[in-house]
Design goal:
This is PadR family transcriptional regulator. The chain has 106 residues and is of the alpha+beta class. Helix content is 51%, strand content 23%. The strands form two sheets. It has a three-stranded antiparallel sheet. Strands 4-5 form a two-stranded antiparallel ribbon.
Length: 106
């Protein structure tokens, strides 16, 4: 996997986590990714969150969470629309047959 492909894949997974949770701070994104078997570090996730925000895919608020002020991220309308469309697209199963993706599998 090339560096660009790996970054795109991590971007998709980060956006999926935020889409599923609605709003989440960076440590929550990192924890969710790790719990799902991704090998990621804070040095990978936090710069990516900043880049996705700069690209207009994430919005950020500062909130006190567990006694600490954290940046809490949520998808922008553009990113939500893209996520909804992605869930509607058919995917190809390992046997080659197409099937519609459900929100739980994206």
């Amino acid at each position: 996997m090339t560096g660009d492909t790996a970054r795109e894949s991590l971007s998709s997974r980060v956006l999926r986590v935020i889409d599923e949770r609605g709003a989440v701070h960076g440590a929550g994104v990192l924890r969710d990714l790790t719990e799902h078997g991704d090998v990621v570090t804070a040095g990978m996730v936090y710069p990516l969150l900043s880049r996705l925000e700069a690209e207009g895919l994430l919005e950020c608020d500062r909130r006190v969470v567990e006694g600490t002020t954290r940046r809490v991220y949520r998808l922008t309308a553009v990113a939500r629309s893209a996520a909804e469309e992605d869930r509607r697209l058919p995917t190809e199963s390992p046997g080659g047959a197409s099937s519609a993706r459900s929100p739980a599998t994206t």
